[in-house]
Design a protein that fits this description.
The protein is mainly alpha-helical.
């Protein structure tokens, strides 16, 4: 899946397309960190206002539009020369919040409609996503790297958006399938990262150069 998305190339193209909007926001006096926070807050509010009530079409539209902040903040930081470790840290934190809100909203929908098994599956998918991100952050705090995995954030977001589209079109199995896929892929990615980090930490020569 990561190969299919060709992430570096996709990101370069997306960043180029985001440049005009990024320049306009900078001229208005907005900074990349503000856009990160506002985008995550918007996604979280949109998800919790629509998804628990089964308004998947509106949820998809709002989340997709507001998620543009993920492209804009990085582009704005590059254009303004404001790239920093603080900005990267803040971006990662607010991403976890918005991701949790989206899957939490889906879990609430299934809980409200008395589908406890699917609500539990949504919580499992949320948990796997959060732990996937944590393994990378914890590895880097120990001097290792964990830039591996079949389902990084870009893939997880794409799966959720496609599932919301399917649900909006009345495809009943779209969300359950996506949640099961997120859970399984999350487990695989966590396992891959554990193996890679263990190899690095047990072999000094395996640690990346700093």
């Amino acid at each position: 899946m990561a190969v299919m998305l060709n992430r570096p190339r996709v990101r370069r193209l997306a960043a180029a397309g985001a440049e005009p909007v990024a320049r306009a926001l900078l001229q208005l006096g907005l900074g990349p960190n503000a856009v990160s926070v506002l985008g995550a807050a918007g996604v979280s509010l949109a998800a919790l206002a629509t998804l628990p009530f089964g308004r998947f079409g509106w949820g998809l539209l709002l989340i997709a539009l507001l998620s543009a902040g993920d492209l804009l903040d990085g582009t704005m930081a590059r254009l303004s020369g404001r790239t920093s470790r603080w900005g990267a840290f803040l971006d990662s934190v607010v991403d976890r919040i918005s991701d949790g809100a989206v899957l939490g909203g889906i879990a609430l929908y299934f809980a409200r409609t008395d589908q406890s098994l699917l609500a539990g599956l949504a919580v499992a998918a949320l948990l796997m996503g959060q732990v996937t991100s944590y393994t990378k952050a914890r590895a880097e705090s120990l001097g290792a790297t964990a830039d591996v995995g079949v389902a990084e954030r870009a893939e997880r977001v794409l799966i959720v958006l496609l599932a919301l589209l399917g649900a909006a079109l009345g495809i009943d199995w779209a969300l359950p399938l996506a949640l099961a896929l997120l859970t399984v892929l999350g487990m695989v990615t966590i396992g891959q990262r554990i193996i890679v980090v263990r190899r690095q930490l047990h072999s000094p020569s395996g640690l990346p150069e700093r």
